[in-house]
Amino acid sequence: MKQIGITANVTQEMKDVIFAEGHKGIAVSDNVGTKVQVDGFALFEKRKDAGDQEDGFALKFWDVEGNDWYTSSSVFIKSFMRMAQSAVDMETNMFVEPMTITICSRKAQKSGRNYYDIEEAPQKEADQSWKSIDW
Predict the structure, then answer these.
(1) 68: Cβ contacts below 8 Å, ≥ 6 apart
(2) Which residues contact 47 (CB under 8 A, 6 or more apart)?
(3) Residues forming a β-bridge with 2
(4) SS3 (DSSP) at 30
(5) Who has the most CB within 10 Å: 20, 25, 72, 100?
(6) How far is CA 36 from CA 72, 88, 103, 112, 129, in A?
(7) How many CB atoms lie within 10 A of CB 89?
(8) With contact defined as beta carbons under 8 Å apart, do 81 and 102 qualify?
(9) Within a 13 Å sphere around the CA of 29, how many CA atoms are in the beta-carbon half?
(10) Of 118, 127, 126, which is closest to residue 99 (Cα–Cα)?
(11) How far apart are CA 18 and CA 20, in angstroms?
(12) pTM across the whole model
């Protein structure tokens, strides 16, 4: 996986822990309805040609208590990154104050499938500008 975004308070030691063999973080998918105060994140791009099972993104984030969370839900990641874009001070590359999110599950109108999202995220067309930010 290639790191493409990270807040300044995420250390190499924190990244080593989340990728350690046998490490279990907290899955977004197991915590619908949970409110989380986010203090930092690291975003990774997954590529099949790099040995990953699928293309896409993987988001790792830390709450104010130091717990690490993870998801590869594309909708959740888009919502998270759009919110982070306005909550992170770009000069310090850190959250001005913890970003509060509530994990939710929604049902797609077309397919009827459930997906994970953030309750506080603006419901609008997905904005892809976060992909070009130099985190």
Answers:
(1) 14, 17, 18, 25, 26, 60, 61, 62
(2) 1, 2, 55
(3) 45
(4) helix
(5) 72
(6) 17, 16, 8, 27, 24
(7) 12
(8) no
(9) 8
(10) 118
(11) 6
(12) 0.86
CA distance linking residue 97 with residue 54, whole number of Å: 34
Is the pLDDT higher at 124 or at 115?
Answer: 115
* Distance, CA of 19 to chain centre: 15
Q: Tokens 């500008």 sit at which residue?
A: 129
DSSP letter, residue 55: S
Q: What would the pLDDT profile of 42-93 be if each residue is shown by its tens digit?
A: 999 987 776 656 778 999 999 999 999 999 999 999 999 999 998 999 899 9
Tokens representing 2 are 């290639």
pLDDT value at residue 108? 84
Which residue carries 């999202």 as its tokens? 117
Helices then strands, each counted (H, E), the chain: 2, 9
